[in-house]
Amino acid sequence: MSTKSENPKPPKPLPSVIQAYWLPAILFCASMFFQLVAIPRSFPPSHYDALGIKSFSSIEQVNEAYQQLYMNWKAGKGPSSTLDMIKARYAFELLSNPTWKRDYDIFGIDEHLHVMERTKEKYSNAYFSDISLPLLEPTSFEPDPAFEVISSENFVSKLQNSNTLLVQVFSFGSSQCAQFSSSWKRIASLLDGIANTGMIEVGDLKLATYLSEKKYTGAPFFRNGLPSLVAFPPGCKTSDCIVRYTGQLSVDAVTDWFATNILSLPRISYYSMESLAQTFLGKGSRHKVKVIFVSKTGQRATPYVRHVAKSYWSYASFAFTVWREEESVFWSNTFGVEEAPATVILRDPGVKPVVYHGLMNNSRLIDIMEQNKHQVLPQLRSITSMELGCDPKGYSRAGNDTTVWYCAVVVGRLSAELHKMRETMRSIQEILSNGGDVDQLDNETATSASVALKEKRLTFAWVDGEVQKRFCMFYVNVEDSHDTCGPRRDITDVPRLFLVRYKRNDTEVNRKNEENSMNMFASMASRDVDPTSQLVALYKGVNEIPQIIQWISDTVRDGDSRDLPFHRTSTPELVPEDVDPIWSKGKEQIISSSRGMKQRIGTVPQRINDLTGDPRLGPMLLLGALMSFGFIYLRRNQSIKPKEESDDASDPKPEGTERSKLRRRRPKSRTNDNIPPSITDMEPPNAFQMPFTDSDSE
User: How far apart are CA 170 and CA 203, in angstroms?
Assistant: First the structure.
């Protein structure tokens, strides 16, 4: 028995009318949806409607309307349900309070709706007389006198004098503002010294309206109610660039948002006991001081700590860790920390840590960093050369009036030999500053160096010879300088000590500049020459403290007493050892532009939500539906005539008619006057037929 396979029928195409008019149909349906569903939800009945009076009625009219409703209800003529009376009672209590009524009328603020919803749910099946009144408890909120309340009179001056400003918009009758008062006090204290803070009461209508958001009608409103936090980033002086906070109103969330998004402060990571040694201390920047904050609570770094970390990023690395009782022995034996909170500062390797116990504030932390931002034996870097007085540009720690000063520098690659030499120089620095054992030396031996150190004319420092290769080669300049400078070639590492004598002579510099001004090439060459004279002495003795002190003192004494030649040269620049961080000034513009783009993208859902409540959207969609319908209708009718013409073209026509249509026709506007003659147009008068010899015609 054979079965006959049936091919599936192809799906029927949609009618041509539906294919043509699908866009107007969709626009029409969308317009009906907005007009019948979305718009009514965006404009719910107001509390004035619950009382049966016009919007913005006075308090007296509110009282009269409620009393009338209540009397009618008692007489059996009022609202038949308890829910209607609850709505009327809630509207009466809200609109009879002057502060609440002002906030509701101008900004649409109603923070007690949850009370009405809870009451309706609880007493939905009860009588209105069973409800305990009043529904709302009035709140009287007075800000702390320590808070600065900004008014319209001093707002401009406050904004101009502030680099960064955080403002809280509040209301005296808001219970949420009263609850947020303690948190705001903590936020203001954490931002003290970093940014200015202020408060604005919504009763200052001019200023509150200026900082509020605007609806499509221009009416002011605060999207998340009160309190509302508004930040003016650095350089922002108008409302066009303000940033609004939309997150949770907690101290940690607000301060983290402000420090990260507004101030662009770096985050400080937490480390465990194991990762602290392996990652932070082992793999961190060796040329920086290490600062460890031992926290007892484990909360994130405060804004002023992050601000200090940003300010001293070139000098120190920062880390947080949590104090645990089971690890107290480790902290006590390793760093000398007895309890938390504490701040540990690690300067040079092998040097005893500096520990500060107790809570920190902004000013105390800055003082501590100023005292400990350098290592015990400072490192000579591009950012520290002028501060240490080891810069050929003419800056001395002793001041601009000092003409001669010195810098003793240890240079070499990071190795055990350099570490030992740095320890020796730290001991010498301590001895010469009367902080160590000076009995082992002759006082006359160390007099010159000790006096120069006290007068800030002598500085001790060290240089990483591998990173600062050109700088190292310039000052060492010996045959085996590759054992000290540049990348390591073999296992040999030879740290060296040299002493640089700087001398400033403005008279000599001015005289040479006048001489070079007459010669263009000499003037161009002198631009790269350092303004100070440098003489370098390289130490070639043994690595012993007395011998080194003797050599430094003799060199300083000789440099102060002798009139040595004034010779200037061009010193190689120190290479920056760190890449500019993401929060550096050179990248702040890029960050601010990307932050602004991110903020605009983040407001897209809000704009879409606002657009759904715009009553103009429904008519616009309906107009688009009608216009697209008319356009498609006209195009479909115009397409009929070309179709009829194509049908006529298929009919047979006479041969002459078709040939005449194919013949090329010249435009009527053109004339034959200017057309050049062709050889086939006319026969010249002297023309004749030339006979050919092989022609058959005789």
Answer: 9
